Amino acid sequence: MSDITKQSLTELVENIKNKKLSSTDVTKAFIDRSEKSEELNAYITNDFTSAIDKAKKFDQKPNLDLKLPGIPMAVKDLFCTKNIKTTAGSKILNNFVPTYESTVTENIWNEGAILLGKLNCDEFAMGSSNETSFFGNVQNPIDKNLVPGGSSGGSASAVAGQLTPITIGTDTGGSIRQPASFTGIVGLKPTYGSCSRYGIVAFASSLDQAGPMAQNVKDCALLHEVISSYDPKDSTSINFKRNHFSKELTNNIKGKKIGIPKEYRVDGMPKEIEDLWQKGIQYIKDCGAETIDISLPNTSYALPTYYIVAPAEASSNLARYDGVKYGFRAKGENLIDMYEKTRSEGFGAEVQRRIMIGTYVLSSGYYDAYYLKAQKVRKLIKNDFDEAYKKVDAILTPSTPSSAFKIGEKTNDPVSMYLNDIFTVPVNLAGLPGISIPAGHDSNGYPLGLQIIGKAFDEQNILNIAYAMEEKINFKNKITDWWIK
Amino acid sequence: MSKKNSEYLINRKDNQYEVVIGLEVHAQVLSESKLFSTSATKFGAEPNTQVSLVDAAFPGMLPVINEFCVKQAIKTGIGLNAKINKRSVFDRKNYFYADLPQGYQISQFKDPIVGEGKVILDMPNGQKEVGIERLHLEQDAGKSIHDLDPQNTFVDLNRSGVALMEIVSKPDLRSPDEVNTYIKKLRSIMRYLGTCDGNMQEGSLRADVNVSVRPKGSKEFGTRCEIKNVNSIKFMQMAIEYEANRQVDLIEEGKTIDQETRLFDTKKNETRSMRSKEDAHDYRYFPDPDLLPLEVSEKFIEELRNDIPELPDDKKRRFIEEFKLSAYEANILVSDIDTAKYFEEVVTKMGKNKDIKLAVNWITGELFAILNSKGLEISQSPVSAKNFAILINLIKNGTISGKIAKTVFELMIDGDKDPQKIVEEKGLKQQSDPKALEALIDKIINDNREKAIEYKQGKEKLFGFFVGQAMKASGGKANPQLINEILKKKL
Description:
By secondary structure, chain A is an alpha/beta fold. Helices cover 36% and strands 13% of the residues of chain A. Chain B is 38% helix and 20% strand. Chain B has 15 helices and 16 strands. In chain B, strand 1 and strand 2 form a beta hairpin. In chain B, helix 7 packs across helix 9, helix 9 (385-396) packs antiparallel against helix 10 (402-412) and helix 12 packs across helix 14 (462-473). The chains are: A alpha/beta, B alpha+beta.
């Protein structure tokens, strides 16, 4: 089978279970394509040699009852992986090899998957274009010199470019959904508390969630089923009954009420985004569901709120990277000098910018005006959703206000870069699940995504809506393999 | 300085100053594992052998609250007659230091687990109430070791993440003596509760001391200085004395006192400025997003309340009522839980016909003396409560005299011997046979005819001479009461 890497996860699992393919066949195929795809710069670290060993071992004694039997996959380099370098895209962790495994990746390996390597991302997941990574830009397989989005840019690029059948990213303000939208794939940000944060390098603890990224909704549902678990090692993990998302997946969404929030019609939004949204509304109706106009009045405060809360938490979360215990250390005259040099040389510009913003908004005299007020607004934003969900089952919005942009286009304009997250951050602030599915192309043929936002713990519902829409949309990603010589 | 009516005042020319003191006591929670990790907390372990990935703040590591430490804090709150807050919040206190791996300490800032309470102090001139402002849970930092290498500082993270209770008093203390009594009372309560071992040498109990002065009679507080991390009661008292006098001198010279943090130099016996208010850290407190607010139910609190043992104040009241002890005696016995336990066991073991006063005198006299000289705690007493009780009974029922009892006690120490056996083996039993004693006395009177005549002629102090002779002749074993009676009759 020459087109192994074109197969979806669901197909691969079936073929391995039917013994049409071995784990070794599949693993070798993805490694081969990954090796030919260096120009995408999707990987920070590969573990190909041991992946083949593991695949061979799996094939000798295959356990076909597992959910991901012998499936190779690469993961975002924000997940700590035992004995494999974990950098978070930063120089400061360039030499860091964890002795422990994140709960989410542990869940994946327990279901039979095999690690291919660690995928590029924005430094500490701070960015919307993967340009802040210490390990360089990631190319979008859609077109040369196009950003894949961020912060899970390497992950999105690797799935869209078929370097891995599926992957996991993390989403603090849109870091799964925005790159999924930019690369024409599916990305789910689960309800806060659904996936354990244990072993994930923290950016903003009250917002961070791991989630699946895949070629289609069904694959996404299956991977979510594997990674979502209650974990006593994470105090914010929530103990609730989790669905068999892939088994319970249905395209029957008749009678569902889908909210269309008027506040997401922002100034300066390109017409093609508006058109896409309208098409989405039509698809919903075609599926037998109903759309209802709703209001989320505090939406416009979400982005400023996010850019106070997230940097505040980040400034504290990143204090541990001080050169004392692990990671990069610069030489200094004394302790303070060592701190200053280590952190100036070890962190990139965007991370430093956010640490400074966070330190500022938490400092005495400014705390009430910024951090405390942001927490209050955050509550209002959550109340907006609670109010809306009295009337609707889910909400449909565009995933991003534009399609993917060129590398370097927004590098010197952080605010324009931050605006990319305008539709995704409210979901994180409210702790809700949101999924981005590819829904069309812009005039350049670049993919555009639609976002479905659900009630807390209602992932099954938004997966079903996405599944039903996916069938109607029948999206085809235009990948030309331009980077393969 | 004058201590008229035990009031502690500082005198300068015509002015008298009152000293106002508040304490922030850091008490290590007695717990096998740390506040947010499962690492051990044993004192004196090899450096960095009790450190988990959480304690060392590895990437992606998350804190998980130790329920036992929460229970300990609530119990302590109950012991301090304080309000238990059903909802409390853990905050991050952000600052950089090499022995603070996270770059922040997890503490409780706005919403502590325990609110206002009070502690009663027994002072020589009566009882005094000291208000408790709050008690909160927090992590300890690691330890920086600066003296192992001329170039480098070493860091030991064994203590990193150990649970501390910070107990903040109101500024109700007025003298070093009150501070002494307050610390001892806190320690006593926590030892009764089993929530802190109170061991100051091992750093389980240390305090930041806030000191200010004001003219006697003034209602306004003066500017305070905080003396950081003082780890013995003696040093606290010395530091307060020095600091109060320093502040009074400044006022007398017409200068102002700067609000600042100071260090106590134990070698020079002085406090020194560490940092001024302007240089104070901005800790950027905010709620720790890795931890949900801590919520405890009424039932959870009630179960702990039902589990609270009799505390020193109640025990003291009971001792006074039940055993007819003086307040002074009761105080001595209850202040340390192990002393109280020992005493109560002795009382039980003495059985029906007991002499509690005698037991108290022996515990606070002979037993304390021995423990002191050997540097032992009462829990390590070489004489068990059981054998101690037998000894007291032997005195009470006249088997041995108090004097002989001291000899017996000396012999008991070596291997907790049964005093009954010692008395038998050494033949120390008191001679209480009137006939034998009469014969003995007859002989003494016969041998000292001239003195007997002198006594009869009125030289009464010779009586003592005859008692002495009789005791000597009996090898100290004669019942002194009987000797007295017989001598009076015969002479």
